Hints:
Blueprint: H1 10-29, H2 32-41, E1 49-54, H3 58-69, E2 73-81, E3 92-97, H4 104-117, E4 125-130, H5 134-137, H6 147-160, H7 164-173, H8 181-186, E5 190-196, H9 219-228, H10 235-241, E6 252-258, H11 260-273, E7 277-285, H12 289-306, E8 314-320, H13 334-345, E9 352-358, E10 370-374, H14 377-383, H15 388-393, H16 397-404, E11 407-408, E12 419-425
Parallel strand pairs: 1-2, 1-4, 2-3, 4-5, 5-6, 7-8
Antiparallel strand pairs: 8-12, 9-10, 9-12, 10-11
Helix pairs in contact: 1-11, 2-3, 7-9, 12-13, 13-16, 14-16
Amino acid sequence: MVQDSTCIAPTSQSVRNDAHFIIDRVIEAVLPEPAVRAFLRQRTPPPRVTLIAIGKAAWRMASAAVTEWGDAIAQGVVITKYHHALGELPNLEIYEAGHPLLDANGLHATQRALALVDELGADDTVLFLVSGGGSALFEALPDGVTLDDLQAVNAQLLRSGADIVAINTIRKRLSLVKGGRFAQRAAPARILALVISDVLGDRLDTIASGPAYPDATTAETALAIARHYQLHLSPMLWRLLEEETPKTLDNVETHVIGSVRAAVAAATQAAQARGYTSLTLTTLLNCEAREAGRFLAAVARTVRSEGLPLPAPCAILCGGETVVTVTGAGKGGRNQELALSAAIELAGMDGVVLASLGTDGTDGPTDAAGGIIDGDTTTRMAAQGIDARSALADNNAYPALAASGDLLITGPTGANVNDVTLLLVR
Length: 426
């Protein structure tokens, strides 16, 4: 939604323009194509390559691989989120499937990928391209587990407030491909895995639930998580949680080629180019979204009152991934909830803007990447008959931010390296 600038104080409008400039630079810095091409350009392709790409960035990663290694890529499967594929690619089957909840298309596409790797021998190479979203998109179910079973578990996890490590600890044990099991299935073929990380600390056994990486989590931990979040599971699913995952793999070489640190570094450079002194608080942000919003609003007030941690004009940056414990019936995502929470605390402040975005361009089950707010956001909401605090209580950030013109909509970016939150204070 395009914001009517007549509703925003001139100083805040100027700062919003700066925020949009910085956001554009962030997205440019983490696009997957340059990272894939730069890595593959340094390697001599094997004689025969089977390409398997999973995640929100799968199509773009596969396209870059075809550009560099096209003659060697004999076959492959690309599995990405709906509306994220941009056309056909030579020798590759392209599938779109459900995210954040698995659907039948994801199961079918995964079976096609497994059919290809089942035919491979010791002289074959799998180029495995992994990006965030792979947990929902790449799945094969154990005997006795249905799609409805897994969808019900995932829905519980996504509403629980559990972080991605906890969520994927459960997912790995209810799967035939997660937690290193895909690599076991592909053996004796060799796997070259290129990973774009959307997980705090780039934990390789958690990104896309680690289909081709030894699993560091244990069955004991999985059972404790299920009990802690009071998951409702069938006896079959409880038994699966007790089974261990592979702890060693000898047919995989893995490289992380993109992460949130690159996004935050790009934001720092862009902010400095706009005249802001920059400070990165963390690239491991992991807390309730509304609490992060309240905290960053408090930082903005401290900048104004005490010049700490930096005097204005300054840019305060965070990377990571917050969580939302869903108690209401509204619509939104973690970045929108963070932005709405900050808007409540920053009401009336001129020259302060906070933007929080998912670098993939989709925040939760919405078409927005996040939110961009200022000191007049709640006033604009009120003019549309929306009480910001009530919207936050109902986890209903999307319509509230839409009404005030503060949704951040980029469309699918092809990138996916966690979230970036930007606080600008003039």
